[in-house]
Design a protein that fits this description.
Length: about 230
Amino acid sequence: MKSFLAAAIQMTTGADKAANLEKAEHLTRLAAARGARLIALPEVFNWRGKRSDEPAAAESLDGVTLTLMRRLARELEIHLLAGSITEHAPGESRRHNTSVLLAPDGAQLAVYRKIHLFDIDLPGRVTVKESDVKIPGSEVVTAATALGTVGLTVCYDLRFPELYRRLAFSGARILTIPSAFTFPTGEAHWDVLIRARAVRPQRPRLQRLRQFDDRRPLGTSAGPRLR
């Protein structure tokens, strides 16, 4: 795997999609100007709001968000991970949590739909049931790039080591984990889980935590530089 600089972008996403995309574009341009060749945006970076508003905020892979991301990747000549978006699932009432990797010419290298959905109930602390509104994916996804083979995952996937073992056996040398961990679970488990996935199966990883809504997120983050 060749030496390169990667950037893991952190941002606080809200219900104003236009403002979120403006911020994402600004930070992507800043990272590219500093020499990053692989840039990763956070989970659901383009929109995060009330669940009742999610159907209207969901997009196809040809929607406004990924159209912008493809243009940026092409203009800046970077590998760009569109952390994840809420993707329409035709004929379904629920949607996918989808991560997309783009090439420096703007081509779509890989589409990964989050397999492990975040269903948790910690009484008095945090309750989330992602499966109420999301459909799990079923495919393990890697993409061969000039930087090395990339294995795509999202957030709660981090808790399932067999997924990372399969990615390693598929040749992944870089693991992407755009994430929005809540504070209670993140404070307790994030660092140790990241270390475990990096050591076994011994792969560099690109991670990102970001703050969102009133579930008291884990606000500190540490995305490593990959050289």
